[in-house]
Structure formats: C-alpha cells, structure tokens
Input
Amino acid sequence: MKDKFGQISAEYLFLAGVLIIILMISAVFIANEMELNTAMDAARNGVNEGVGSSSVSIYPKDTFIDYSTSKSDLLIPYSVEIVNITYRELGYDNNYGKKKIQFQVYATSSKSFSKKQLDSIGDRINYNLRKSLAISFNSTLSTNKLFNPVFSSHYVFTTANVKWV
Amino acid sequence: MDNKGFISIEYLFSIFVILIIAIPLLFLSQSAIESSLNMEDSVAHRLILDDVANSISQVNSNGEGYSKSIKLPSDVGYYEITVENNKLTIEYGNKKGETLLSLSNLDSNYKLHSGASYLISKNNDGKIVIS
Output
C-alpha cells in the first residue's frame, strides 16, 4: 500500500541535496552581484530623470529661484547626453560596515555652459541618481535629504562629480 | 487527509525563489515608474507653457484686431501661468518653469489658471490683451 504514495529515488534526493548546498553557497555571491546590477539599473533610471529635467527645464521652486538669480541659462530647455555611467569599489567602509561604491557619470552638453552651470547640472544628475538608488533599495528613511550616501544591504553608494567630455 | 488541499514541496520552493527575486525588482520598478511619471508631468506642463507662448506670439505677429482663443487643459492638475512682457512662468505643485517671450506691448501682467478659457487679442492701440 505504502508504495503508492510519494516515492522518490535516493539518487534524486542526493542530487537535490547537492544542488541546494551549491545554491546556498553561491547565494551570497549571487545576492551581491544582483544588488550591484539593481544599483546600476537604478542609477541609469535616475540619470535619465536628471537629464530629462534638463530638456524640459521644469525645476522644484527653490532650484528655480536659485537658477533665476545666477544661472538663468539653465531655465531654457537644453540637451545633455550621457556618454557613460560607471562605478568603482572604494573598499570597505568601517563606519557603515559595508562596501563603498562610487558612481561616475560622463556627460556632454549641446551648449557651452560655465563651470558653475555645469556643476549645477551635474549635481542634479547625481541627486536623481542617488534618489533612484534610495527608492530602489527602499532605504529613503536611512539617508539624508540629499540622499548622500545611499545604503543597500551590502553597499554604501556615493557619486563623484559628473565629468564633462 | 491526502484529498484535502495539499501542495507539493517543489511548488512551494519555486514560489519562494520567485518571491526572493521579485521583491527587490518591485522597488526598482517603483523607482522607474515614479521617474517616468515625473517626467511625463514635467513634459506635459512644458508643452502647455510653450503652447500658450506660441499663441501669444502668433497674436502679436498679426495685425490689430486679431484674436485667438485658448483653453488651458485641466487634465494634468492645477497650475497657474503668469504672463509678463519678457517671460511666461508656469507654477504647479512645488515646481516651476519659464519660457522667454519678447513682447513690449503687453497690456498688463496676467495670471492664467488651468481649465479656464481665454481670448488673446491685439487691440486697436496695438496692445496684447488677455481676457
């Protein structure tokens, strides 16, 4: 009677056991890699939003007031192109107990802007990048108003100044 | 007992794996959706602003007595457009944007509100009036 119910071969059990052990060992590496992939995806999303806000030139009120006093060129829509987004590991951060990752955005602009104006555009791109990371890792509560730095389970993210090429 | 709602361990295991993969992606999608909605909103307001600026320029470039009526869309929420001689400013929520306008004959500064209809006309003195 018993033979009718749930028979499973010893080979299958052994194989499943070995697979589970391999999976458990590699899970740590997979999780870390997945976290970095998610971070890169989120960074690209954020950068796109930052660039998009340049092409429509609609800003939060305080930014608008700041720009209208000294950087009025930024109030007219202009085009910024992203050349590349990279990140590099900066080692282990003892303060936070996580690995440090720094994002670097390379961009080019259709118009010639002053150094100050380029800095403002770069800051907004980086702000949107970090904001997107914070939302993607559900860590908006553990960071500050400027989302600097942003945390995930295993990493702490910062951004380097945008390089204009 | 075996007849009542039992579920295979493989099924439970695959659901568990799918959940582990899907949960982080949910937050990523939330961020992506949020940023596209933001962009959509900004673009919609920029288009409205440019549309009003074009209408005013069109009336200005025509002769006295020319008029054009516009209806400001209300499907993107409440916003306010301020018309001045040299610029048009749109304000909504916590956001603001402007477009340049080179008029010297605007009757006075105006505030236009979403959902309302306006008539832009050039009167006999050559002044642009919005009513």
About this structure: Chain A touches chain B at residues 5, 34-35, 38, 41-42, 45-46, 48-49, 52-53, 56-61, 64, 68, 75-77, 128, 132, 135-138 (CB under 8 Å). Chain A has a mean pLDDT of 89.
